[in-house]
Amino acid sequence: MFLTYSLFMNLLAAGLTFLLYSPLSLASPTSPKTTCALIGKAISSSSTVFYPEDAEYSLGIDHFALSAIQNSTCSVEPDTALDVKIILRILASTRIPFAIKSGGHNLNLGFSSTSGILLYMTRFNQITYHAHTNTVDIGSGLTWDQVYAALEPYNVSVVGARATGVGVGGFLLGGGYSYKTNQYGLAVDSIVAMEVVLPTGQVKTITYTSDEDLFFALRGGGNNFGIVTKFTLRTHPQTAVWGGSIIYPGTQAEAVSTALLKYTTRVTDPKTGIQCTYATYGGESLVMVNLFYDAPRSPTGIFDDFLSIPAALLDVGTRSYLSLVQSANTNLTSHTRGVYNTISHTAVTSSLLTAMRNETNVYSNALQSQSLVLNGYVVEPFLPVAYHRGTSATAYPPDRSQAIHPMNIYYAWSNITFDDVMFDAARSSAASLRGSAVREHILGSAKYPNYAISGTAVEDFYGKNVDRLRAIKRKVDPLNVMGLTGGFKL
Predict the structure, then answer these.
(1) I need a labelling partner for 195 at 20 to 30 A (CA). Which of 201, 251, 280, 389 fits?
(2) Which domains does the chain have, with CATH numbers?
(3) So what's the pLDDT on residue 4?
């Protein structure tokens, strides 16, 4: 089969006329293998295409959750924005499904994985600190622990993820809640500029002044508008911090809930941060609490109630910010199967915490015989002031008039046979907790995209912003090239 006219013109525009005279021109342009070969011939020598027989291929397709992994036809590691541009041109012509992977921490199958062409952004790993502007340029293929480590010698940090192994790209494009959110807003509020390869093949630096619409859309709007290769973020001074992790036996759940309610009603210090997880692990009930204070010592009275409860494990104290992030044992369930789901709520109440504990126990009992490893329900309270830190509108959250607390529902299991059972349980449990929030009139206005299960409607994230986002999408991606990749699609 000969090349289509559209493929001919796109290859010509990309400066790839030599391909027209290769044997590849006789193969079907819709074949994933042919597309991999086209990409391999077109990109520069600094970028590489890997196939299943290559050792590097396995690293490319790997994910935090085994259930999110797919065997791609090839894994491409682009090194430059120009090569990403070339790849997008080819994909626009061949219409082969593709995925973009940064850290591989998304649990939804097909969001950063594909049976088609995987773009593994790991070579976009540059970190350049600009002391004179208090900003840092970071590649979209980095993980946040890499960013924190690189900035540590300068005594600065950024608003980023609270767990190791989380990729820069997906986290920022989804909104980004952080230990520093109470002080500086969501991670998207710290974005100054983005280098983006647009579906039309242009490479642009997007700022508020250069393109207000696209700057709005990219900050929380997911991967609908192009491929971001570099972010410029504001930095903030960073001293040693205080905090870490506490694990309590399940018998202390009521005491922890009481401490959490007191914290949420009394603490107004924006330097604080907290996560509280009601969980079962191996059938045993427990409560995990992560504490944070952005100074070497925590003032008396803020976390005293938590510290007075008898714990099974206590790892808190003065440490570096990187050490604090590393102290959360988020890799406990790495390479099990997994699913997230979420609701949001506007207040933390005794009834809601009781409902979360009940859901933990109900689904632990129901799913133990079906290879459940861990189930957890995480409450993450933020101060109302956190939503007023941004200086311009963002795709997410659509409403900043009141605080919304994202709840993370997480199940990990070992047997592929029970995938559908676990997905259904995560959906049913979220629906139950949503009902609890509705009855108390505390249901939040928007779900957090980075915690949401596949199939969630985009209206649930973007609310009143959906029409504007769709209009921007039509403008920058008229051929719906980004519709060939997974994620929450507009």
Answers:
(1) 389
(2) 5-122 (3.30.465.10), 127-237+463-484 (3.30.465.10), 241-461 (3.40.462.20)
(3) 44
